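Human:
If only I could read backbone structure tokens as easily as an amino acid sequence. I am handing you a single protein, as its sequence and its fold in token form. I hope you can help me see how the letters and the tokens relate. Thank you; the sequence and its tokens follow:
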Amino acid sequence: MPDGADKKPSRIQQRNRRRILDAALDVFSMHGYRGATLDQIAEAAGLSKPNILYYFDGKEEIHVTLLNQLMETWLEPLVTLDRDGDPLQEILSYVQRKLDMARDLPRESRLFAGEILQGAPRMAPHLQSGLQPLFEEKCAVIQSWMDQGSLTTVDPRHLIFSIWATTQHYADFAAQVQVLLRDDPNGHEGAAQYLEAMFTRLLRP
């Protein structure tokens, strides 16, 4: 960034940063970090490469900025799992929130998946400081529900993993899903009904 970068950015600067980040999200979600280039990001943003480098030091800074912005959004559905709510409904609501995110934020899902597949080189601190304690807290909540007999006893960790796998699939493998469900206008609703039935049968005592 140039001298004076600590000053409040102008509206044009804010708009251009958003424009670059939105274009980069498209590029990273399509090509992954290694396959993405600044030239591709510049072309997608409709800006020159030097203009991109005016706002960001390089590809890595853009990628890290996107990941930092994503983490709060990504963790929110798990944060809202309520210890005092009805156990089965809380789990089913969490499934629905994750499925809705797959529909509404497919680029973000693929960005996250791509980072994890590379070994989380830029996100590891977030996983350790943000996700891990939250994950352990919510696993303890789910285990308490099972101990009370409100849910069938399964490993809470693998339950959450299975929720992630079955919901994020619809974003991370969207091209395949779209081909296979091309004649189904109610694909999202059908997925929601299926997952609700599956997790209800698994967890209802």
Q: What stands out?
A: Residues 26 and 155 are 36 Å apart (CA to CA). The domain at 66-203 is CATH 1.10.357.10 (Tetracycline Repressor; domain 2). The two ends are 58 Å apart (CA to CA). The chain is about 75% helix and 0% strand.
